[in-house]
Amino acid sequence: MIELYELAGQDPDLRFSPYCWRVRMALAHKGEEAVTIPWRFYEKAKLPGAPHNQRVPVLVDHGEIVSESTAIAFHLEEEYGTGPSLFGGPSGEAHARFILGWTDSVLVPALAPFLVPTILPLLHPKDRAYFKSSREARLNASMTDLADSRDGRLSSIRATLTPLRVTLAHQPFLGGDEPTYADYAVFGCFQWARCVGADNVLDTQDTLNLWHDSMLDLFDGLARSAPVANP
Amino acid sequence: MIELYELAGQDPDLRFSPYCWRVRMALAHKGEEAVTIPWRFYEKAKLPGAPHNQRVPVLVDHGEIVSESTAIAFHLEEEYGTGPSLFGGPSGEAHARFILGWTDSVLVPALAPFLVPTILPLLHPKDRAYFKSSREARLNASMTDLADSRDGRLSSIRATLTPLRVTLAHQPFLGGDEPTYADYAVFGCFQWARCVGADNVLDTQDTLNLWHDSMLDLFDGLARSAPVANP
């Protein structure tokens, strides 16, 4: 049995972590079923591998504990070699590293200040004080200032997406004709926004909607049918 | 015989175009010899394929004219299949597209305003009026303002390089254990800066120096031994 520990909101069915979505999509890509287990920040001691593991996603694969989304992806690629490849071989994997690096160092930091004030009220009440203080420190801004600056951030977020637009003008997925883990890594950020109710990251005219719709459709609409916060 | 038309400065041996450097490195990767032909902007009519082709690089491969660096890379990959692959297969190629897209849409625009005022006096006198007016229009700034703002741009240029640092902390090249066309595309930008004498894009402490030095060493120091503008 495979278990996936995912960050949940006050509503245990609300799962919005971009890193957990990478793993959810990667598991579906491999055709593997997993039991997803809601987890909140206040439950640090309950996380498999605690106290070493402090964050989700954590995968428990038939008893083996694997934490951190990229490590989980490589674990799945190695252990489930008979399913479709997540990287398309060593060269795909090497080049995909840049896409993961860009996502983590550019896209996530662009979206975080925009999404954090939206996320706060969706969290379990016991999580809110921790989330507020840790994110205010990380982003070096008060939650009030972050909320006030949200609308002003949209144009620079959209500008950040230019390399995706350029690439996806050539091919349907970042991985080529079929999606790979690179697509799931980037898409996790869009699903992060979607699940917390921030559905305006992409303008309706954005050429990325074609790719985004394809990602939502994958695996019988896995991401499209995920619970979304009420506005 | 393979001929490569490259942008040259007033000194015909000074070749600094980032897109031409991609092709120079790709040819060396394939183990192919080429005659490189200096070309200046005022010689538009002399470019093979003119007037359709307006820009370098242009490759003339045994009579076949191929223009635009990415098209040239795919041409080389297809026609010189017995040499080492430039992409490592279809998945490498698909994922490399994002690295090319990022380079063209983020790295080149970050460097251009920094380098353009340095390039202007290095050009052939007949090229300068065209270069000045076209670049001032493209960058929406006067050459004087661009020159005055150079130092202030360094920190944001260096911040732009973060996804490279993250990736190259994992592996020696963007292509993995060996360089691929993705490395040449990015490196072309560094060689652009180096050849025009802007050798301070990387701080001496930058972790990217390891990769940059490896790139300069490739093919018996092809890029390291290239003529550089006198300061």
Structure description:
The structure is a homodimer of 231-residue chains. The first copy, chain A, is an alpha+beta fold. Chain A has nine helices and four strands. The first copy, chain A, has a four-stranded mixed β-sheet, with helices on one face. In chain A, α3 runs antiparallel to α6. At the A-B interface, α3 and α7 of A face α3 and α7 of B.
Mean pLDDT of chain A: 97
**Unreliable residue stretches of chain A:** none
N→C terminal distance of chain A:
35 Å
Helicity range of the residues of chain A?
40-55%
Main-sheet strand order of chain A equals 2-1-3-4
In terms of quaternary structure, what is this? homodimer
Helix vs. strand class of chain A: alpha+beta
Gross morphology of chain A: globular
Radius of gyration of chain A: 17 Å
Largest interface: A-B, 34 and 34 residues
Helix-strand sequence of chain A: EHEEEHHHHHHHH
Q: List the total number of helices of chain A.
A: 9
Task: Summarize it.
The structure is a homodimer of 231-residue chains. The first copy, chain A, has 231 residues and is an alpha+beta fold. Chain A has helices spanning 18-29, 69-79, 90-119, 125-139, 143-148, 150-160, 162-168, 181-195, 208-221, and strands at 2-7, 35-39, 58-61, 64-67.
